[in-house]
Amino acid sequence: MFEYDYERFFLDRLLALRTQKGVSAREMSLALGQSENYINYIDNERGFPSMRVFFAICVYLGVTPKEFFDDGSADPAYLRELIEDLKSLDARDLEMVSQLVKRLKTPSS
Asked: pTM to 2 decimals?
């Protein structure tokens, strides 16, 4: 049977996104309208947020719930913003960006 530690994933992802935003656990707790130790309580594996609070956490971090659980993107909010910017480019500019991305992905010899 497939086993995955979803609790550890949740805790690691919360820490990564909070750190990326540059806020302390206390600051985030208070911004969510919780006690000052609320996020530390979660970080220390003593509980998990309700769905309502989880959605508030996502709003606070600037990510959708889907982006929260997508660990393929280190900075989902920035990636979403970049995609929105790309949508405004014409075909020629999109091709230039595509070529640049491919060049950056290719290891130098």
From this structure: 0.72
Q: Residue 17: exposed, middle, or buried by beta-carbon count in 10 A (0-12, 13-18, 19+)?
A: buried
Chain segment 54-106, per-residue pLDDT in tens: 999 999 999 999 989 987 777 887 888 888 999 999 999 999 999 998 888 88
Q: Give 80's contacts (C-beta < 8 A, 6+ positions apart).
A: 67
* One-letter amino acid for residue 46 of the chain: R
C-beta of residue 40 within 8 angstroms of C-beta of residue 25? yes
Dmax (CA) of the chain? 54
Q: Look up residue 68 and give its amino acid.
A: F
Secondary structure (DSSP) of 73-104: -S-HHHHHHHHHHHHTS-HHHHHHHHHHHHHH
